[in-house]
Amino acid sequence: MLVLEAQLSKITSLAVPTFPKLINRGKRNREKRREKKRREERREEEEKKFAVVIISYGATAELSNLKNEALESMTYKDAGVDIDAGSGLVRRIAKMASGIGGFGGIFPLGDSHLVAGTDGVGTKLKLAFETGIHETIGIDLVAMSVNDIVTSGAKPLFFLDYFATSHLDVGLAEKVIKGIVDGCQQSDCALLGGESAEMPDFYADGQYDLSGFAVGIVKKDFVIDGKNIVAGDICNGF
């Protein structure tokens, strides 16, 4: 009997310390489940609050916010971009220069075609200004122009850039150009040169504008010009 009591006492003394651990672990698990549920509920509320239905996409793109009547209808023109005016300008230019192309202009050269394109980076410059990160905006600049010429099947050959600012900050400009060099390397094309312009009082201090110009080449028989596109064609996205 004494031996049995001693064994029971030993078992009890060993078992008791484990209970708080089990209780605490169970409590933590319940708290985690409750917190996960709260996060899911908050996410669902945010999704309901800002649920956006895309009605159409293009020149008449409209967004309908289910909770905010202020965003009930929005178009490119509402955002300050007049697509109709842009199309009208292109039609006027075409009357003066009938050889203008689509995304890239095509110029016959023997059994090949040169394809040229130009573009900027738009309001993405604001991200560079606000974050102070200037080493990558040049990569995007190259991509904008190169992407336009590859739509015609062209292989990029070379690139030129235009950098304009109020007062030239050599260190900042070097960071921007470094990004352009990286973009050219990624696109397998050469950076041949460019233009750096200082225009005091035209740009705000510390800000700048960028433009890029890319030229590529494609064999005449492999030009993609959209002439063979017909209704019902399948478009593959990668």
TrEMBL record:
EC number(s) on file: 6.3.3.1
Keywords noted in UniProt: ATP-binding, Ligase, Nucleotide-binding
Entry superkingdom: Eukaryota
Domain PurM-like N-terminal: 110-218
GO function terms (MF aspect): ATP binding; phosphoribosylamine-glycine ligase activity; phosphoribosylformylglycinamidine cyclo-ligase activity
Pfam families: AIRS
A GO CC term assigned to this protein in UniProt: cytosol
Gene Ontology biological-process annotations: 'de novo' IMP biosynthetic process; adenine biosynthetic process
Biochemical pathway: Purine metabolism; IMP biosynthesis via de novo pathway; 5-amino-1-(5-phospho-D-ribosyl)imidazole from N(2)-formyl-N(1)-(5-phospho-D-ribosyl)glycinamide: step 2/2
Protein name: phosphoribosylformylglycinamidine cyclo-ligase
Lineage, broadest ranks: Eukaryota, Viridiplantae, Streptophyta, Embryophyta, Tracheophyta
